[in-house]
Automatic annotation (TrEMBL):
Membrane-spanning intervals of the chain: 12-30, 55-77, 89-109, 121-138, 145-161, 167-197, 209-230, 274-295, 302-327, 333-351, 358-378
Keyword match Transmembrane: yes
Keywords carried by this UniProt record: Membrane, Transmembrane, Transmembrane helix
Lineage: Bacteria, Bacillati, Bacillota, Clostridia, Lachnospirales
Top-level lineage group: Bacteria
Protein name as it appears in the record: Glucosyl transferase GtrII
Length: 511
């Protein structure tokens, strides 16, 4: 029996291991990166100008009420000159710290259910749940929020494991209030924990499962209703509109169909961040291994394993079902890798129980986990590098545009003060030829800044310290100036075709 001091030391060491792994995976984000949301929010006109009340309102309308409380951290840091545009490495290190703490709590929750010989593999499997290519988007947007949400979800699960359900609900609610999809961390790992802890389905298992869904579902529902109430009170629009209170069975059925159809496609291609079918094949292989072992040794658990697995793999797409528009960027689907990690924990528990009879199988599974770990690490590094490359390319384009503007001003004697912009509806969110570029959907993790209408001219102003006013281009002007252009003319930045000057106005057609 270890003492409190020994236990504390043990988990400090585990935390250090997790932090080292998180740091090695996401270290490229110690560099300055840019995303459209934070850049637009922090750079208004000529200079740095944070409108904190607007950011708080946006957090409430976006269904992230606890994000307002987190500003108790970011506002004081901003006063010290630490924000998304200056010294962002501090915010990224905070994200790494909280993410590592969340992983440590998850490890503390699961580790007692496994033998000592399995601990190093449990550490790796849990790490794979949150250290994933899709988690890169949390670092793209920066700040501690993603890590705090993971830590709160893990704390909720730990208290659930200890039978303290009210405290568990509180932590789960706080987690979902930082970002809506965090209920998936709590629920997916919770279902895996039920399978691992219970040797058979019984009344106790059913009651625990119902409690899990009540805590996760109740937390998510409260958070989903927050922007509804706030938008009604303020007569504002939700940032991400949901179908709650404005749908029928037919519309809900269509939402479910389209959400899961797209979800299955994403499991296949993973937005190009992993090799095609790679994750899907691993999922099937691990499930088959586990089912084969259960058929030979523990048949009464096959049904519980299959049902638990099906529910776990249905959860990652559940968030998009309630959205008015099916919305599946990678940050909303980190549940895929949480589900993969949970599936591995269940599989490894079965292998551990019958280890002496399946040592070769255990070695094969461990080898597959190691291969996935290496591919996963490479994918994270590649995606992070693509974000940096994309940012640099956009900054170079902004400087090129400024040179062309100044050349026009010298030749014409006019001073450009207004930029009128149109965005192609078929535009994509990444430059061609970057490694994670893909054509499946418009949501790669390599975020361009200027393809968002709220940040195109703001980024031009930011890079060049200018103060151009922005206007949307009318359909009449778009047809007059750019109607003769072909789609291939917008494959890349071409100032000759995409920039037109008239007096003090620049007409800019975004590609």
């Amino acid at each position: 029996m270890e003492t409190k001091k020994e236990g504390l030391y043990k988990y400090l060491v585990i935390f250090a291991y997790f932090f080292l792994l998180v740091y090695m995976s996401f270290v490229l984000f110690i560099n300055q990166t840019y995303d459209p949301d934070n850049t637009a929010a922090l750079w208004e006109g000529y200079g740095y100008n944070v409108n904190w009340p607007d950011m708080m309102i946006n957090s409430l309308l976006g269904g992230r009420p606890i994000g307002v409380l987190l500003m108790a951290i970011t506002i004081p840091l901003d006063r010290l000159g630490i924000n998304y545009l200056n010294n962002v490495f501090v915010l990224q290190l905070m994200l790494m710290f909280f993410l590592s703490a969340g992983l440590t709590v998850l490890y503390a929750t699961f580790s007692d259910e496994f033998e000592k010989i399995s601990q190093k593999w449990i550490w790796i499997i849990i790490a794979l749940g949150l250290i994933s290519p899709f988690y890169v988007e949390y670092f793209v947007f920066g700040g501690p929020t993603g890590g705090v949400g993971a830590l709160l979800a893990a704390m909720g699960l730990l208290f659930f494991y200890r039978g303290k359900y009210k405290i568990s609900f509180l932590f789960c609610f706080l987690s979902v209030g930082t970002y809506q999809i965090n209920y998936q961390i709590f629920l997916i790992y919770g279902l895996a924990l039920l399978f691992i802890c219970e040797t058979s389905w019984n009344k106790k298992t059913l009651v625990q499962g119902i409690r899990l869904f009540i805590i996760a579902g109740g937390s998510a529902m409260i958070v989903l209703l927050c922007p509804k109430f706030y938008s009604l009170i303020t007569q504002s629009n939700e940032v991400k509109e949901t179908i709650i209170g404005q749908t029928d069975k037919h519309s809900l059925g269509l939402n479910i169909f389209y959400a899961y159809r797209e979800y299955l496609n994403i499991l296949k291609h993973n937005y190009g961040l992993l090799p095609m079918y790679f994750l899907a094949v691993l999922i099937i292989m691990f499930q088959l291994v586990c089912i084969c072992i259960l058929i030979k040794n523990d048949r009464h658990r096959i049904i519980s394993y299959i049902v638990t697995s099906i529910i776990i793999w249905m959860i990652p797409a559940s968030f998009s079902i309630v959205m008015a528009t099916i919305y599946l960027p990678s940050r909303t689907l980190i549940g895929i890798f949480v589900a993969f990690s949970a599936q591995l924990l269940m599989t490894y528990k079965v292998i551990e129980k019958y280890y002496n009879n399946f040592r070769i199988v255990a070695a094969i599974v461990q080898g597959m986990i190691a291969i996935y770990f290496l591919v996963n690490f490479y994918s994270i590094q590649t995606t992070a590098a693509d974000v940096l490359v994309t940012n640099k390319m956009e900054m170079a384009q902004m400087r090129m545009m400024q040179d062309i503007i100044e050349e026009y001003e010298q030749e014409s004697g006019n001073t450009v003060d207004t930029v009128v912009v149109t965005h192609l509806k078929t535009g994509i969110y990444a430059y061609d030829k970057v490694n994670t570029y893909m054509k499946y959907m418009g949501y790669p993790s390599t975020h361009m800044v200027i393809n968002k209408e709220w940040c195109d001219v703001e980024f031009l102003n930011y890079v060049n310290s200018e103060n151009y006013k922005r206007q949307d281009m009318s359909e009449e002007d778009a047809n007059r100036l750019f109607s003769d252009m072909k789609w291939e003319d917008f494959d890349t930045f071409n100032p000759k075709n995409q920039m037109v000057f008239e007096n003090n106005i620049l007409y800019w057609a975004q590609y």
